[in-house]
């Protein structure tokens, strides 16, 4: 009896509150935030599946690349025709895009005409649809007095899923909305339009862009708000697009920059992913549709289906006696009698209940006040579910964008179009509120589109033309860095000619070919304790090296690096060598060796001429050093004089070696085939083991050769002494103008502002000290041409030295996305967008690739000479390599190796990266020298 009373109580309450009655009936449509987060996660998984080339065929969310690579930046201009096909009312437009100039903002002027499409055309042949489009276009041109014979650029908004092969190529995947034209599915849409235009006399247009309506909406809103990166349609159909990082789009080549992806989210759930959220009414609606099992999400969300869902719910409630005292009219049973416009009218703030009564009365029903309240609440729940589902899917897109950009908080704008969003009185507010709850870390601005599809299509065309024009100009600028195989072969030939000239007579060649008096390579028998000093790009390094017979060079190594102030690098000779002596004294003091006089090797990475292994006359400074009163003086003597001025330790310098020689010696201790040394860092240089008989510039002093090299004058004259290391000083290649035909305007600008104008030509084309400056000059030129940084030449960009080798290596890293490159540039004070970042990365790649290929050409000349010296058909040789550019740059070493092998195909070249080789190599040369004296 108690149970009966309880049931009676609740039944009475339900009778009193019709909204609770509806809530009970539609409880599965009321989605809470946890459920929406779950739906969002499922949508994110589908997005990832759709982006991947392997999993895309089984993905319901197709994530179609659109080949739209940029949103408007305000510099677009031109007049375009636009077609907008997506409903029964087709539009033709003339769109005039005006770029911003001075105080005048960018603007878009639009003229349009609407052409209805008959139902016979909608469900007829595909050719009939495009014949209607073409005839309407011709009519528009005539009425607007536009020249029919002129080739007009045309943008086409085609609001149906297409697989794009290019910006103006798209294959129709399937129709949607009210279109059912036959014979076009799987066909090229633009070709179908072109065929129709050809069938229409006196009409000539060029279709430059084919876009989805969501893409067009994003572009239209992006014209007014540069932060707009998402397009959203909530109308008869529903869809979304957004700018995705290229590296994530598996079906498009390239990984730089961004591309707009059309999600085609209407099919989300077609694989059953939303089955636990689908109600009996959704299933009934789907079963009666023209595409059962398809467009699941769209049927739950879009305006085309909202009214029908309300009708099915109201009909079921009436049949079960919850409404209208169980009375059902024939009108209520008729498909399509309640529309999305009715749903919106029922939810009007002040007139909603009266509108509901009028709508129900028109359906031949006699509703009570409670019936009107209940039906209004049904409409609220159906439309609220729609906005909830859109918010869940949109939060998935925003989460992906936020993750791509690696930001804690995301500020972004969403361009929106569609009748439900625009006309429903509460839809937009509900959507915004729910999205804010689901994703509080995102600040999202919604921009309602004005003529979005048509205006946006023209803007896609305008952006495409801007990018194409920019692309042509940028390609033209960067083409000067692209060297043909013939040009590289020419560089190799000139290097070889200069090598021969340099071996024949002093000062005859820009490639100096300096003898080093290092006439042997390590064989593992070296032993003893040696001091090594390495003056280089990163400072002054002092090392204590303990060589043990048969053990690796790394054993027993102690070192310390000392900085060299710029004032010392560009001061006097006494200041520099006094500083070096002070560093050596500090090291010996720390090691407790000040009372010892160890044999020492001095690695000196600048051009100098040797007459013995322990003396070298400076030819010129490089790498940013410009010390006065040094040219033509013995660098070993200047160091010894500085030590003597201190009088607190003694220094026995047994050998002075170039850093390139030291690198070769270090690597030769591990690989006996290593007969070439290569430095590619702040400077560029090559050394190699040359046959002594070919070296015509050696000081033939009998006493010297017997004492220092252990060879008789007779053996020297006869060439029986086999090899000596030659320091090519290839950094000077081109100083005589031999490379003028590959020198760019940017190289000349860098040379003019350098400390050694007209000298070290090859080094300025290839070394880390100069590549960044070349890049800066290119960026400066592109900016002045309006191709970069929106044409704003900042003081920061005009600052020499803001780019260095490490920065270039970082920018070109494959692991660094364009957005991260943008962060790097912004840290330099360069305000840029992602398009700018892509261009900067491209400039860096062009400059560094040229440098690597030039180094490959020079190295090919060296290894081919070794091969020919020995009369071999094929040479196996190893190259010891050191330098930050080679070691740190992500692509330099690969391009260098590829170029060397292509230009010296008869040589098998192995590259051995050196571990701090120049200093250790100096110790090895010292050991070899002392060992020969002892022998």
Strand order of the largest sheet: 1-11-10-9-12-13
Strand content: 15-25%
Number of helical elements: 33
Through-space gap between termini: 121 Å
Please tell me how large the radius of gyration is.
39 Å
Structural class by SSE content: alpha/beta
Low-confidence stretches: 1-14, 700-720
Shape: elongated
Major beta-sheet overview: 6 strands, mixed
Please bin the fraction of helical residues.
40-55%
How many beta-strand runs? 26
Round the mean pLDDT to the nearest integer and report it. Answer: 87
Entry keywords:
single chain, 935 residues, alpha/beta, 6-stranded mixed β-sheet, 33 helices, 18% strand
Word description of this protein:
With 935 residues, the chain is of the alpha/beta class. Helix content is 45%, strand content 18%. It is built from 33 helices and 26 strands. The strands form six sheets. The chain has a six-stranded mixed β-sheet, with helices on both faces. Strands 14-24-23-22-25-26 form a six-stranded mixed β-sheet, sandwiched between helices. A hairpin with a 3-residue loop joins strand 22 (674-680) and strand 23.
Question: Quick gist of this model?
Answer:
By secondary structure, the protein is α/β, with parallel strands linked by helices.
List the topology elements.
Blueprint: H1 2-16, H2 18-25, H3 33-51, E1 64-65, E2 78-85, E3 89-98, E4 107-116, H4 119-122, H5 126-143, E5 152-158, E6 162-166, E7 169-172, H6 189-199, E8 205-211, H7 213-224, E9 228-234, E10 238-245, E11 258-262, H8 280-287, H9 296-301, H10 303-319, H11 330-333, H12 340-346, H13 352-362, H14 369-405, E12 410-417, H15 419-423, H16 427-438, E13 442-448, H17 452-478, H18 485-504, E14 514-515, E15 528-536, E16 539-547, E17 557-562, H19 566-569, H20 573-591, E18 599-603, E19 608-612, E20 615-618, H21 635-646, E21 652-657, H22 659-668, E22 674-680, E23 684-691, H23 702-709, H24 713-718, E24 723-727, H25 745-752, H26 761-766, H27 768-784, H28 805-811, H29 818-827, H30 834-869, E25 875-882, H31 884-888, H32 892-903, E26 907-913, H33 917-934
Helix pairs in contact: 2-14, 3-14, 5-6, 7-17, 8-10, 10-12, 10-14, 13-14, 14-16, 18-30, 20-21, 22-33, 25-27, 27-30, 29-30, 30-32
């Amino acid at each position: 009896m108690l149970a009966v009373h309880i049931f009676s109580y609740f039944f009475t309450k339900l009778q009193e509150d019709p909204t609770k009655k509806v809530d009970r009936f539609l409880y599965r449509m009321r989605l809470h935030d946890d459920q929406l987060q779950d739906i969002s996660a499922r949508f994110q998984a589908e997005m990832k599946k759709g982006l991947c080339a392997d999993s895309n065929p089984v993905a319901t969310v197709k994530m179609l690349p659109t080949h739209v690579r940029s949103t408007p930046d305000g510099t677009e201009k031109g007049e375009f025709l636009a077609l907008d096909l997506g409903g029964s009312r087709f539009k033709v437009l003339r769109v005039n895009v005006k770029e911003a100039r001075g105080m005048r903002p960018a603007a878009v002027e639009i003229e349009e005409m609407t052409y209805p499409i008959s139902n016979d055309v909608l469900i007829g042949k595909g050719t009939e649809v495009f014949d209607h489009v073409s005839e309407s276009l011709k009519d528009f041109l005539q009425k607007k007095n536009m020249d029919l014979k002129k080739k007009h650029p045309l943008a086409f908004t085609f609001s149906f899923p297409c697989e794009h092969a290019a910006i103006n190529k798209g294959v129709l995947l399937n129709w949607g909305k009210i279109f059912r034209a036959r014979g076009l599915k799987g066909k090229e849409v633009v070709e179908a339009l072109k065929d129709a235009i050809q069938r229409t006399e006196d009409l000539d247009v060029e279709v430059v862009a084919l876009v989805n309506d969501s893409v067009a909406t994003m572009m239209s809103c992006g014209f007014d708000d540069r932060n707009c990166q998402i397009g959203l349609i909530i109308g008869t159909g529903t869809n979304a697009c957004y700018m995705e990082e290229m590296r994530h789009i598996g079906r498009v080549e390239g990984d730089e920059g961004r591309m707009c992806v059309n999600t085609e989210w209407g099919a989300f759930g077609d694989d059953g992913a939303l089955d636990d959220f689908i109600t009996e009414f959704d299933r009934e609606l789907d079963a009666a549709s023209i595409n059962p099992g398809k467009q699941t999400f769209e049927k739950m969300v879009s305006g085309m289906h909202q009214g029908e869902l309300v009708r099915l719910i109201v009909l079921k409630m009436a049949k079960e006696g919850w409404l209208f005292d169980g009375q059902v009219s024939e009108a209520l049973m008729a498909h399509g009698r309640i529309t999305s416009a009715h749903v919106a009218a029922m939810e009007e703030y002040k007139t909603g209940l009266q509108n509901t009564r009028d709508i129900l009365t028109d359906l031949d029903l006699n509703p009570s006040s409670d019936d009107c309240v209940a039906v209004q609440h049904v409409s609220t729940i159906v439309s609220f579910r729609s906005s909830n589902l859109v918010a869940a899917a949109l939060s998935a897109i925003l989460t992906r964008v936020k993750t791509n950009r690696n930001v804690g908080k995301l500020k972004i704008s969403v361009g929106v179009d569609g009748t439900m969003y625009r006309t429903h009185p509460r839809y937009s507010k509900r959507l915004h509120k729910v999205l804010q709850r689901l994703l509080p870390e995102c600040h999202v601005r919604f921009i309602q589109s004005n003529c979005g599809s048509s205006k946006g299509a023209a803007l896609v065309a305008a952006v495409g033309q801007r990018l194409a024009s920019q692309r042509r100009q940028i390609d033209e600028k960067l083409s000067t860095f692209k060297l043909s195989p013939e040009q590289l072969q020419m560089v190799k030939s000139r290097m070889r000619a200069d090598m021969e000239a340099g071996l024949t007579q002093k000062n005859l060649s820009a490639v100096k070919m300096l003898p080093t008096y290092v006439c042997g390579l390590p064989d593992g028998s070296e032993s003893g304790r040696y001091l090594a000093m390495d003056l280089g790009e990163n400072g002054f390094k002092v090392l204590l090296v303990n060589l043990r017979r048969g053990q690796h060079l790394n054993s027993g190594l102690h070192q310390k690096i000392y900085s060299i102030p710029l004032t010392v690098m560009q001061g006097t000779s006494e200041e520099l060598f006094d500083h070096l002596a002070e560093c050596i004294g500090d090291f010996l003091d720390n090691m407790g060796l000040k009372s010892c006089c160890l044999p020492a090797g001095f690695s000196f990475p600048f051009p100098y001429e040797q007459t013995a292994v322990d003396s070298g006359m400076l030819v010129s400074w490089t790498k940013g050093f410009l010390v006065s009163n040094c040219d033509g003086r013995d660098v070993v003597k200047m160091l010894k004089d500085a030590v003597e001025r201190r009088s607190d330790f003694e220094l026995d310098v047994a050998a002075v070696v170039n850093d390139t020689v030291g690198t070769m010696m270090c690597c030769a201790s591990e690989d006996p085939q290593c007969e070439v040394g290569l430095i590619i860092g702040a400077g560029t240089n090559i050394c190699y083991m040359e046959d002594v008989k070919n070296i015509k510039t050696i000081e033939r002093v009998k006493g010297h050769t017997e004492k220092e090299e252990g060879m008789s004058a007779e053996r020297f004259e006869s060439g029986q002494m086999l090899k000596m290391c030659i320091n090519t000083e290839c950094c000077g290649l081109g100083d005589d103008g031999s490379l003028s035909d590959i020198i760019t305007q940017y190289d000349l600008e860098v040379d003019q502002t350098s400390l050694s104008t007209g000298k070290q030509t090859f080094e300025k084309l290839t070394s880390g000290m100069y590549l960044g400056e070349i890049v800066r000059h290119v960026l400066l030129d592109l900016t002045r041409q309006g191709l970069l940084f929106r044409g704003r030449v900042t003081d920061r960009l005009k600052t020499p030295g803001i780019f260095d080798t490490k920065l270039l290596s970082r920018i070109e890293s494959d692991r660094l996305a364009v957005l991260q490159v943008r962060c790097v540039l912004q840290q330099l004070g360069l305000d840029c967008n992602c398009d700018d970042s892509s261009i900067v990365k491209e400039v860096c790649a062009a400059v560094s690739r040229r440098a690597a290929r030039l180094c490959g050409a020079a190295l090919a000349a060296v290894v081919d000479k070794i091969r020919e010296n020995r009369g071999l058909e094929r040479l196996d040789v190893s190259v010891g390599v050191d330098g930050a550019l080679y070691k740190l740059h992500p692509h330099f070493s690969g391009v260098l190796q590829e170029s060397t092998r292509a230009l010296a195909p008869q040589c098998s070249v192995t590259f051995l990266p050196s571990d701090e080789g120049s200093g250790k190599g100096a110790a090895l040369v010292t050991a070899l020298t002392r060992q020969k004296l002892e022998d």
